[in-house]
UniProtKB/TrEMBL annotation:
<dbReference type="InterPro" id="IPR014043">
    <property type="entry name" value="Acyl_transferase_dom"/>
</dbReference>
<comment type="similarity">
    <text>Belongs to the fabD family.</text>
</comment>
<keyword id="KW-0012">Acyltransferase</keyword>
<dbReference type="InterPro" id="IPR004410">
    <property type="entry name" value="Malonyl_CoA-ACP_transAc_FabD"/>
</dbReference>
<dbReference type="InterPro" id="IPR050858">
    <property type="entry name" value="Mal-CoA-ACP_Trans/PKS_FabD"/>
</dbReference>
<keyword id="KW-0808">Transferase</keyword>
<dbReference type="Pfam" id="PF00698">
    <property type="entry name" value="Acyl_transf_1"/>
</dbReference>
<protein>
    <recommendedName>
        <fullName>Malonyl CoA-acyl carrier protein transacylase</fullName>
        <ecNumber>2.3.1.39</ecNumber>
    </recommendedName>
</protein>
<dbReference type="InterPro" id="IPR016036">
    <property type="entry name" value="Malonyl_transacylase_ACP-bd"/>
</dbReference>
<feature type="active site">
    <location>
        <position position="84"/>
    </location>
</feature>
<dbReference type="GO" id="GO:0004314">
    <property type="term" value="F:[acyl-carrier-protein] S-malonyltransferase activity"/>
</dbReference>
<dbReference type="GO" id="GO:0005829">
    <property type="term" value="C:cytosol"/>
</dbReference>
<dbReference type="InterPro" id="IPR001227">
    <property type="entry name" value="Ac_transferase_dom_sf"/>
</dbReference>
<dbReference type="InterPro" id="IPR024925">
    <property type="entry name" value="Malonyl_CoA-ACP_transAc"/>
</dbReference>
<feature type="domain" description="Malonyl-CoA:ACP transacylase (MAT)">
    <location>
        <begin position="6"/>
        <end position="286"/>
    </location>
</feature>
<dbReference type="InterPro" id="IPR016035">
    <property type="entry name" value="Acyl_Trfase/lysoPLipase"/>
</dbReference>
<feature type="active site">
    <location>
        <position position="190"/>
    </location>
</feature>
Length: 286
């Protein structure tokens, strides 16, 4: 039986996460970042923890701590993957990026993503119960909106300029989607409006060491396995402006023989999505 470790992205944060698990790693993160991430994880306030430049290093640190504990009692997984930000946790687990570099990079990634589009100008919405081809068609016909996350059958997130997202949300419902839920996000992630963030991120990634991964990482951008350091670097830049192919990634892992998924980090978001993609696989949380 092949097992995959999967790592959550933004939205899985909760005040109190990492207690009795991530103390020493959060202390390391505090020193690297120069602010008290540990206090924000353990005590909040929630509004502060929700800020993307705080959320990203917080989830990464707690996820890597959970992985380190899991690795002491579990055999190495056949493959790893992460949802958006979670891809960085997966790359730490696969030995491609050092934890200290990853925590610094995702803090900057959060800042760059927030700065790319002024607050209030961008938006994201979850389209529930719609057909993938129809949602893609709607987005192609409206300027300024794009599919951003293919999460599971019947759950696709769109992203872009606020008015365009509202227009596309209505058009998706007209095309048969059950609901369109505006998401409480501070920026339109995973769309071409994030290009300024991608450009800045590339410069920062060029400063750190990226090694070949020791186990295959299923990349968000391609839903294909990657181990080469050069390709990992390239895909992390593209990931900022590209849709997260999560449903495709899970299907790829299953096609490669994975029958058990362990969600490593806070929350159970990915386990829920994986069960919607294939109810026959095993899911658990660490």
């Amino acid at each position: 039986m092949k097992t995959a470790f999967v790592f959550p992205g933004q939205g899985s944060q909760t005040v109190g996460m990492g207690k009795d698990l991530a103390e020493s790693l959060l202390d390391q993160a505090n020193q690297i970042l120069g602010f008290d991430l540990k206090k924000l994880c353990f005590e909040g306030p929630e509004e502060e923890l929700k800020k993307t430049e705080i959320t990203q290093p917080a989830i990464l640190t707690v996820s890597v701590a959970a992985f380190q504990q899991l690795a002491t009692r579990n055999p190495q997984p056949a493959t790893v993957a992460g949802h958006s930000l979670g891809e960085y946790s997966a790359l730490v687990a696969a030995g491609a990026i050092k934890f200290g570099d990853a925590v610094k990079i995702v803090n900057l990634r959060g800042k760059f993503m927030q700065e790319a589009v002024p607050i209030g100008q961008g938006a994201m919405a979850a389209i529930i119960g719609g057909e993938r081809a129809k949602i893609e068609e709607v987005c192609a016909g409206i300027e300024g909106v794009w599919p951003a996350n293919f999460n599971s059958p019947g759950q696709i997130v769109i992203s872009g300029q606020k008015e365009a997202v509202e227009k596309a949300s209505a058009a998706c419902k007209d095309a048969g989607a059950k609901r369109a839920i505006p998401l409480p996000v501070s920026a339109p992630f995973h769309c071409p409006l994030m290009q300024p963030a991608a450009d800045k991120l590339k410069m920062e990634l060029d400063k750190i060491e990226v090694k070949d991964a020791t186990i295959p990482v299923i990349a968000n951008v391609t839903a294909a396995a990657v181990t080469s350091a050069a390709e990992i670097r390239d895909l992390l830049v593209k990931q900022v402006t590209s849709p997260v192919l999560w449903e495709d990634s899970v299907k790829k892992m299953i096609a490669d023989g994975v029958s058990s998924f362990v969600e490593v980090g806070p929350g159970k978001v990915l386990s829920g999505l994986i069960k919607k993609i294939d109810r026959n696989v095993e899911t658990s949380n660490a």
